[in-house]
Design goal:
Blueprint lengths: L7 E3 L10 E5 L7 H17 L3 E7 L2 H5 L11 H8 L6 E6 L9 H12 L2 E6 L4 E2 L5 E2 H11 L2 E4 L4 E2 L2 E2 L2 H9 L3 H8 L4 E7 L4 H5 L4 E5 L10 E9 L2 E10 L12 E6 L10 E11 L7 H22 L1
Parallel strand pairs: 1-4, 2-3, 2-5, 3-4, 5-8
Antiparallel strand pairs: 6-7, 9-10, 11-12, 11-16, 12-15, 13-14, 13-16, 14-15
Helix pairs in contact: 4-5, 6-7
Length: 317
């Protein structure tokens, strides 16, 4: 795994006082390839001007506050977002609590109060679809107008394009929701993952010859890929293992529809890991979840799945 860098984290902006910083602003859900391009530019400018670098983000996601009755599935929890940001030598991360009151802040007030007075920005870098402030009225053009007033420079990064699609958090969410984790991984710049605790299940997998770790996802708003069978990598205790995962309701085993589950069969693995935390990386989708006529037919299919999963995983090495 990539070693993490030191990152100063602030949940209260009153404890931060910057001067001549290189700053970016955004939600950064998923910390995808487009976000990473912004961070690299931030680091480049910080090195060039010998300035400290600052990321400003919001939590919770504004849509969770402004549209509470519309379910929003996230690519990354706050802890995961921080974990991903730590891979870059950024100096400071400021997490602004997003509330209904904060949502009324105009873009002009945000620039004056936060970028100018608190952050002390001398350079600001934003993404290609940057919109901020009340009703998302603040745009890059707004930022440019304010830059001459408050004495900072501003630049906007071009979009990253994958398979003729501009990379965005919403595009990646759509891709994962239909099971296209190959596109999602390329757009993210890493393999999409979920993590959670191993809990006790029915132990049916063990009786089928494919013991599985049943994983309780640690955040109910974390986006799960579409139901089906996946080639995965599993991280446990600092080690990576190959495996295959099933997301769904186990129609051959269960007599009635249950809640969506994530079960992972880890190849060549015999450890008892109940209560342990696993991170599951989705590499490729193999097939839909289907109901088989018998358990025997299910076992035959699992044998075929294993061959296909190993083939896909070996191609990715």
């Amino acid at each position: 795994m990539i070693p993490a860098n030191h990152l100063n984290i602030y949940h209260d902006i009153s404890t931060f006082h910057g001067r001549n910083t290189v700053t970016t602003i955004g939600i950064f859900d998923g910390v995808h390839a487009g976000h990473q391009l912004i961070f690299k530019r931030l680091i480049e400018l910080g090195s060039q001007y010998h300035n400290e670098t600052v990321i400003i983000t919001l939590w919770p996601h504004p849509r969770m506050v402004l549209q509470p009755f519309e379910k929003l599935w996230l690519l990354s929890t706050l802890d995961e977002k921080i974990e991903l940001m730590r891979q870059y030598p950024i100096d400071h991360l400021i997490i602004l609590p997003f509330t209904a009151e904060f949502a009324q802040t105009t873009y002009e007030d945000f620039i004056r109060t936060y970028l100018y007075e608190k952050i002390g920005a001398s350079h600001v870098v934003v993404g290609y679809n940057h919109h901020f402030g009340r009703n998302r009225q603040g745009s890059f053009e707004s930022l440019l107008k304010s830059s001459s007033v408050y004495g900072f420079s501003a630049e906007r990064m071009n979009p990253v394009v994958v398979n003729n699609t501009e990379v965005s958090s919403s595009a990646i969410r759509r891709s994962i929701s239909i099971g296209n984790v190959v596109f999602a991984n390329e757009a993210l710049g890493y393999e999409y993952f979920v993590q959670g605790e191993v809990i006790r299940g029915s132990r049916m997998g063990r009786r089928l010859g494919y013991p599985t770790a049943n994983i309780a996802i640690n955040n109910p708003q974390k986006l799960m890929p579409r139901n089906g069978v996946y080639a995965v990598k599993v991280e446990w205790n600092g080690q990576l293992y190959k495996g295959m995962a099933n997301i769904g309701v186990r129609p051959t085993i269960e007599s009635q529809v249950h809640e969506q589950t994530l079960e992972v069969h880890i190849f060549n693995f015999t450890e008892e890991i109940y209560g342990e935390r696993l991170k599951v990386y989705f590499v490729d989708r193999i097939r839909n979840e289907v109901k088989f006529a018998s358990v025997y037919n299910l076992i035959k299919q699992l044998d075929e799945d294993k061959k296909e999963v190993l083939s896909r995983l070996n191609q990715k090495v």
